[in-house]
């Protein structure tokens, strides 16, 4: 795909931050003896990656706004456009030396996501999409899976960590969903969960209590791969931080199962 200038800027920023994170990821293994040391090191790696992305994007598009996990929110001179960035999604995996984490960069225009990049730097998998242009993994076009029977489907989700209050709700979700499908996976990166739905590796994904930067890029990649996405609560995915995503044949059934109605 011949991406737009904006998409090329996003991909370039993701690759540059990816090189920095891959270097730091190799270091993490040597630091495992001291968890505190490793934790501080990973926060620094995360902040450094965000700075690289911010420098690249702001140099290319100085008028756009900014929303990111580490650096907060800033309105741009152009109030209709902003970058939504997670420099390191799957931080806990990164810290544990698990090669399953990603950089997520989305471009929002007038409240709608128009371009998204999710880069798994450890595996060199660049997932990207632009509105109306399809979804891609490296050089290949992506398409969601075609499975139409829930019982054959694998769904991804996130499980509450560190005392998060939605544990009872999540356990009820699992009790409802596990018997109806072929399996549930919890890999720990919301951005990659969505990219994997787009790639047909998962048939669907659901999670609550996320931040906009976890899912902004991934939701467009799913849509452009022919999948459907919708909020679990409320009427905006990004405002509610809740999302159900899936291939078209199972979406209605899956959405009802997740929403329990
Ligand atoms: P993060 O790695 O950028 O923090 C997975 O359920 C999602 O929850 C991830 O996208 C992850 O984003 C977020 N998350 C935040 N804190 C987490 C934690 N302590 N453990 C697992 N996931 C966490
Ligand atoms: Ca995240």
Automatic annotation (TrEMBL):
Assigned protein family: Belongs to the inositol monophosphatase superfamily.
Binding site for Mg(2+): 69, 86, 88-89, 214
SUPFAM superfamilies: Carbohydrate phosphatase
Reaction equation(s) it catalyzes: a myo-inositol phosphate + H2O = myo-inositol + phosphate
Enzyme Commission number(s): 3.1.3.25
UniProt protein name: Inositol-1-monophosphatase
Source domain of life: Bacteria
GO aspect biological process, one term: signal transduction
Sequence intervals crossing the membrane: none
Sorted UniProt keywords: Hydrolase, Magnesium, Metal-binding
Record Pfam families: Inositol_P
EC category name: hydrolase
